[in-house]
Design brief:
By secondary structure, this protein is α+β, with helices and mostly antiparallel strands. It has 4 helices and 9 strands. The strands form 2 sheets. The chain has a 6-stranded antiparallel sheet. A 3-stranded antiparallel sheet has the order 4-6-7, with no helix packed on it. Strand 2 and strand 3 form a beta hairpin. The longest helix has 7 residues. The termini are close together.
Length: 124
């Protein structure tokens, strides 16, 4: 599966989509494939402020628990509450309904250092 071209990608397999005032963050298909069945998602709460590179949550799967990092700093303005009831949305729709959080960034500049879809796909 090719990664969507409308977002940026991290070395740690998160994707970020710039939506103007907010940035949506999720896990890539590659990450989901490596983790296999995701059984639990716990993100920091709405209002949580953080710096670039900080952990904003974690996902648990039958294989491992993985921290979720944000390459941009800011504040969480929305958490995907649907994942509390159905964490498998991250598996079935990682680029759509399986998004994790929406962030109001303090500075979008770190996104310029992230990979585009072609660069990410060529590595994975």
């Amino acid at each position: 599966m090719k990664s969507p071209a409308d977002r940026k990608y991290t070395e740690t397999h998160e994707w970020l989509r710039d939506e103007g005032e907010v940035i949506t963050l999720g896990l890539t298909q590659h990450a989901v494939d490596e983790l296999t069945d995701i059984t639990y998602v716990e993100m920091k709460a709405k209002g949580f402020s953080f710096k670039p590179g900080d952990i904003v949550g974690e996902v648990e799967s039958v294989k491992a628990t993985s921290d979720i990092y944000s390459p941009v700093g800011g504040e969480i303005v929305e958490v995907n509450t649907a994942l509390a009831d159905d964490p498998s949305l991250v598996n079935s729709d990682p680029y759509g309904g399986g998004w994790l959080v929406r962030i109001k960034p303090t500075d979008k500049a770190p996104m310029n250092k992230l990979m585009d879809a072609g660069a990410y796909d060529s590595k994975h």
